[in-house]
Amino acid sequence: MSMLFSVFLKLSAFSLVAFGGVNALLPELLNLAVYQEHWIDLQTFSDYFAIAQAAPGPNFMTVTLLGWHIYGVLGALIATLAIAWPSSILIYFLQRFIMGIQDPIKKKSIQYAAAALAIGLVLSSAWQIAIQINHSAAAYALTLATIGFTLFTRWHPLYLIVIGGALGVLGFI
Amino acid sequence: MSSLTPSQLFISFSKIGMSGFGGVLPWARRTLVERDKILTSEEFSAILGICQIVPGPNIVNLAVCVGSRFAGARGAAAAVLGLTLGPIAIVLLLAILYQHYSYLDTVKGLLRGISAVGVGLIASTGFKMLRDEFRFPLMLLVVVITICAVTYFHLGLGWVVLTVLPLALFLARKKALSS
Fold first, then answer.
1. ipTM above 0.90, yes or no
2. What is the C-alpha to C-alpha distance for residues B48 and B105, in angstroms, rounded to an integer?
């Protein structure tokens, strides 16, 4: 039970430094869980990351799976709650504040600035994840093909996921 | 602005959560902007922008922002629960399956292929948002500097935000005045 409390505290603290989202935090999460606290071994952590990517749902499911590994279903719920509650409360009030700004130029400036920053962070995040999960030229080609199809066709992303999975099963990736 | 009830928000965000393979952002955009038409493309980028400068899981922040915008604290709670409950159940089921079948080469290959597509989907969300920036190309400078700071100089994300934000605000003000 004290271990569960420790997980809750550590992940709650992570919630407040996770600028750019949980994907940006993954190396630090790995360091904490594998090397500092020894909650989980490296191979299992990598596999959970892969499952979180493959499953429907938010990317922070890596955290949910980590919680499950430590303390079953209760651990999964506690870990998910921990990574989400501090930042949720912060954004709830910050959004009120930004919405409350009356000057339209000031308001637009903040939103445009934040949007540009977000684009940079999303693209950086994708780049860093690609480096972590793609281990072959074929995997990079598949990633690039996905970007191409998403930008220049109206294909449902699910088709791309099915094709990617099939190529993987056939041993091409 | 139209108004939405907490249960409508729960359903919209359930759809996002349950279909979001390889990260939810592309699906959030698809559902909120293209299909349910709750937000315009620029509103989505702006809200996501606010959610991205605040720490924490971006998609949960997005649910809190959109939920509270339409239905206050109850809307925020409904959106977050809709987003997370289904996926948590599924991912735990997959974890149990994984325990039994992780030794199979087929399973390993399957996960590799899906991950490669998933990362492409995240990137394409970024590229789609990038299209909005070409109306005021100077803002692209902010994007490029951010990417360099993260991927080349490996600055911590807090530092990236602090370093780039002054320039971003300066150029954003020019953009706001010019439109």
1. no
2. 38
